[in-house]
Amino acid sequence: MCPTAAPSPTPPPLPKPFLARMATLLAGAFPAFLASYDQPATAGLRVNSLKLSPAQWAAISPFGQTSLPGLPEGFLLVEDETRPGKHPYFAAGLYYLQDPSAMMVTALLDPRPGEIILDLAAAPGGKATHIAARLQNQGLLVANEIHPQRVWALAQNLERWGATNVAITHETPERLAGRWPGFFDKVLVDAPCSGEGMFRKLPAARAEWSPEIAAGCALRQHAILQAAAPLVRPGGVLIYATCTFNPAENEGVLARFLAAVPGFALEAVEARPGFAPGRPDWVTPDAALPALSQAVRLWPHEGPGEGHFIACLRRQPGPPAPRPGAATRPFPRPAGTLWADFCRTSLTTPPDSGRVTQVGGYLYELPPDLPDWQGLRVIRPGRWLGELKKQRFEPAHALALSLTATQARRVLNFPAGEAAVRAYLRGEALPIPAGGDDGWTLVTVDGFPLGWGKRVDHLLKNHYPKGLRQP
Fold first, then answer.
1. Residue 204 maps to which CATH number?
2. Which of 53, 71, 98 is the last residue of a domain?
3. Do residue 422 and residue 305 come from a single domain?
4. 249 and 108 in one domain?
5. Domain count of the chain?
6. With helix as H, strand as E and coil as C, how does 200-212 read?
7. CB proximity list for 403: less than 8 A, separation 6 or greater
8. Is residue 5 part of a domain?
9. pTM over 0.90
10. 451 is in which domain, residue-wise?
11. Is 9 part of a structural domain of the chain?
12. Mean pLDDT over the full length of the chain
């Protein structure tokens, strides 16, 4: 998780203390590193394999792109005047726009269907959506974010992604560890950092940087990593990642962690093009911790992407921690009746009603592996199905994005280039031909769900969320 400042129209110069430090560290490689800032930032696109394969995407992609080696779902966008963040396919959750070097974090985490994974600082959701796609709706992803505004951006991105096995929490690492110790197969700490790897992509981040901020980040990163350790099951994996080049925030944090937390050891990761080893000599003059070289750093002058640091820490095997009890919540009869009526009239393949629960005025489908969350701040405990409103049920946008077109009884499909798609995304009602029955209708673009509408006579009333509507 790194700075998200808006691009500056006139990029400020690179900070002088940053340049002085990089010149000392990189020596002969510094001119190539510095020259990379004269090049445009790289733009990556990652396909949502919950909805289509990379080959299917390549067949319909409206953008210029090239494949990223070693990452089947990743593409490098060729610079043009298209705006992929405004395309209807983006609204349908077919892809996520992400820096290619950031994609490598999840590639090294290597999520596998059935695993239980925690993304501890998950907003805005780039790595969380990647993990969810790799899990293929099997197992559990807990996406956590402590920042009260950023957690809703995370929820929005995961909603568009359409995963059904994700819970979103808004907690401190310490409270999660106190409730779910040793529960996760893998934990990702994408730590808040000074964001030096964002200087080319978001030039305004240069103005936010200072040596003091970087030093403060290193202290906070160590605290987060230390708090995250108890969440990893014995024999499990803890991934530490930043988008900064600063050794104090990378090798230095790892050195402090290994000295303070017994039972963890750095593990070598799969060698890939563009990976440079960690540098023990940048934090210990006598290179006394050679294991730090097993971490990897991605440089903007050596491969596609803006830069990252990634380390894999393995917890020593041992007896498993007691497993927390399964989540259970009441499902009152009035809500159950309304939900059953909606499923009967609007869906061909409803969710598993045995896992549907009511929280306040909302209905959710709980992931099978979700433990009891009593006492934790949970934003969404699973797939958001809809809301109860005055003795009626209104389906959630999240439900629409998690379906396929064949799972809805009424579908209104438009090609991506048709004006009606843009009208729908603006929130306009759509005239539709006679011949169909009234009720909730799934609106799709080239067969991929965009959201809900409600047919009444010859008109489709628009239920695309107001906060997502395009001008």
1. 3.40.50.150
2. 98
3. no
4. yes
5. 4
6. CCCCHHHHHCCHH
7. 162, 347, 442, 449
8. no
9. yes
10. 410-471
11. no
12. 93
- The label of the residue with tokens 């099997």 reads 138
Q: Classify residue 80 by its DSSP letter.
A: -
Q: Are 226 and 163 found together in one domain? A: yes
Q: How far is CA 103 from CA 61, 127, 212, in A?
A: 19, 7, 29
Shared-domain flag, residues 304 and 247? yes
- Which of 2, 193, 217, 243 is catalytic? The answer is 243
The residue to which tokens 């940053």 are assigned: 18
β-strands 308-315, 296-298 pairing:
antiparallel
The one-letter code for the residue type at 342 is: F
243 is catalytic: yes
Question: How far is CA 45 from its chain centroid?
Answer: 13
How far is Cα 386 from Cα 120, in angstroms, rounded to an integer? 26
Peptide bond preceding 124 in cis form (omega within 30 of 0): yes
What is the residue type of 88? P
Taking residue 440's Cβ as centre, other Cβ atoms within 10 Å add up to: 21
Question: Do 160 and 145 share a structural domain?
Answer: yes
Last residue of a domain, one of 52, 82, 98: 98
Q: Note the pLDDT tens digit of each residue in 296-341.
A: 999 999 989 999 999 999 999 999 888 888 887 778 888 989 999 9
Q: How many angstroms separate the CA atoms of 150 and 190, rounded?
A: 14
What are the tens digits of pLDDT across the range 196-232? 999 998 888 999 999 999 999 999 999 999 999 999 9
Task: Supply 349's token pair.
Answer: 């393949």
Question: 71 with 117, same domain?
Answer: no
User: Of all residues in the chain, what percent are helix, strand and coil, respectively (each to 5)?
Assistant: 35, 25, 40
- Contacts of residue 423, defined as CB under 8 A and 6 or more positions apart, other chains included, come to 430
